[in-house]
Amino acid sequence: MKKTLNINIGNSIIYIEEDAYEMLTAYLNEVKHYFSRNADDFEIVTDIENRIAEMFGEILREQQKQLISIFDVQAVIRQMGSVSDFESSENEGTGGSSTEDFGYPGHPGNTMKKLYRDSDHAMIAGVCSGLAHYLDLDVRWVRLVALFTVFIAGSGILAYVILWIMIPKAETRTEKMNMRGQETNLRGFANSHLEPWAMQSKSFLAEFFDVTGNFISGTGMAIFKAVAIFIIAAASFFLIGLFIAMVAFMGIWDADVANYFPFSVINQEYFTVLTVSAFLVGGIPLLALILFTVRVAFSNREVNKTLSFVLLIVWLAGLAPLIIYITKISSEFKEGAEFSQVSELQVYPHYTLIIDRTRFFSREDSLSYSIDAENYKGKRILADIDDEFKAPRNVSLWIEKSTGDRVSLVQNFRSRGKTFQNALKNVQAIHYDYLQKDSLVNFSPMVQLSKDARWRGQEVALTLKVPVGTRITLSTEFQRYMSGNIYWECAEQDRHFDYTELIMTEDGIKCRNEAVSDGAE
Amino acid sequence: MIAENTQTQMRKGILEYCVLLIISRGQIYASDIIAELKSARLLVVEGTLYPLLTRLKNNGLLSYHWVESTSGPPRKYYVLTQEGKAILHQLDATWQELVYAIETSKKVADNPSDNNTVKVDKP
Predict the structure, then answer these.
(1) Any idea where the domains of chain A sit in the sequence?
(2) Beta strands A350-355 and A471-475: pairing type?
């Protein structure tokens, strides 16, 4: 049983067997290709096609059949002549280059061999047999050499895989003939039909590798595409996030962002430029990544050179101000300044120190939040120190022995600046509040800066000086504010979690438990 | 190689002449031209004829017209143009000259001793 086709050649409908059709198509393509050099190619090819159609008609009529077989096609082609037959009579007019091989009616071709993988005779993927065809060697020798190279640190395996990828498989009949160096004309086709390569059984290994190779290239592509989609999605997400951040920092969306660390470092006047620069420096690589991934995974179009250059230039244009301003801002941390302020506290034998989220209502607040101090009496503003990180820790506490009976609190304000004078100015911008209510001393969790003052490492170091024998209860928040490890040590001994007790001794501050046990000894 | 080359060149020139001669006897279809050439043992494959006919036609030596065929697609029938006839006339003269040249050469080759006494009628 054979498959048949229905073709229209020279305005006649012809029924033709599939293999005959293949041969006819190959022949006509060859003829078309040959005459494409000729100015009248269309007319000539039409004449030839018409004539072939007529010959088919004659064959069908004479032999009383319905179908053109491969033998009929061969007969017709024999009568019409192959391209090499045309060559010998078509060289006139060009001066007749007489040195050429003019074997009449045909000449044994000067055909070029091409390197293909011979999957029909393959052990694995047909690289060796393909090379054997190309080099005109027996495939056994090629395989032997290949096997030998495998033992040279396995380089043969790598070479094989590379060749497997690089060398195309001989799929069509023409490619197979090119691989063997046969002429792609009638005689070649005739031979190719006499020798049914496609029927040759492949080795089991070759079949196995064929199947796995198809599988890997199939799933590999799918996985690659999935990864590409993920990259594109992630990059797009970050890009959108970056854009929202830029809008936020530009003060369009939420004006308060500039007051949070680390953005509070940035001088107000640099802010817009820096935001745009940072957006470009961060966003353009993301955009480039998206474009690149899209191109690699989903289309083979060349990347637009102009676009790449524009992106590069814009990126550099964003990078330059970023570097300049970062340098400028870092220079404002060069000098340090400090001043201290000593305040007397009322004397009690036992102090309780707490850190309160209650913000002390300052003059600065009334300005920055437009709150009328008079109407605000008795109300408190709560600072969400637990939820938000607005600045690095800038309050620290240490407890020392005082010389007399007095209790005092020393506040050391520190800051940095471009010059000493500058730093001192920044120190003066610090506001820190504490409140004594009998024996309860309430500390603010952080320093306040004047409105529009930038963060320049402002901090306050508090030193509480108390006489010997003074007991101090620290609330749990002090674990984060106490210098040294004293809170942790004592909390461990106390075994309760919301406060710890200390006592001032001649040797300095001690955990109360420890001091009591010392005294008992 | 030389022999083949010379043969090819000879055949090429004569093929055109013969085609013109065959067509000069009246309008004719391409496959009949081929049949005649084959009986003259000149042409081996048909495909060679079509480029030749097309070139002769484009040089104004031939023209053709379509004739409906009972057994297939319409056929191109070729005839000589006036120019073609004139050229054929020239070719006839050239052919006579060639025949003379060949015959003369052959006779000289046959009788190399008395090449002065040979007399051949000029065409």
Answers:
(1) 4-89, 119-181, 224-331, 335-520
(2) parallel
